[in-house]
Amino acid sequence: MKKVEQTLLKKESEETWELHNNALHFIVKWASEDNAWQLEGFEQHIKALKKSIVSSLRSDRSKLSGTAIELLRVLAELMGEKYQPLHEIFGPTLIVLFGKSNKIVRQRSLQAYKAAIQSAKVPRAIPRLTVSFKSTPSTNKLGRQAIIECLECLLEVNDGASIDQHHVLVKEAIDSARNDSSIEVRTTANTCLGILKNKSSKMAER
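^ thats the sequence. predicted structure below, dont judge the formating
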């Protein structure tokens, strides 16, 4: 693992990006086939590589970016609720990728984010997503659609108590989305509202 860390700590360039890609593939294999994610200190290894993984996620080289996204998806599915601290580190970068022009990158990042929601529930992502939706320009239709889809998933998997902690932010984001110019965003927002009404005690108080 030390050799992998040393490789990833090198700046990405034309000469090193394939080495970075291979190193990330190694971590995927190490975690999934050798169950390394269960080892004590595994999370710290990943946290130590934060800068390198984020850089790979943001890379204009779609192959490298795709491998970094795949790493996060696999870790989320393997680690379950233990993945939440890592999602707090890497989730914001995935949100940025939602608005990328590259369709494959967009789809992969959305799949990875949803995997984190399904596996770890990540309730602390609720306020971040609502703020991200409101701060994403209306011209970024793909980004807004991906964010509201993730918010729908969050509302589905989390209980009412977790949702109620952020009720105001959630309701504001949904109200904004229901007035969006995109019919896809509006439709998903209405689904979110239905879930909120069903789960939130604060909605029942109104």
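The radius of gyration is 18 Å.
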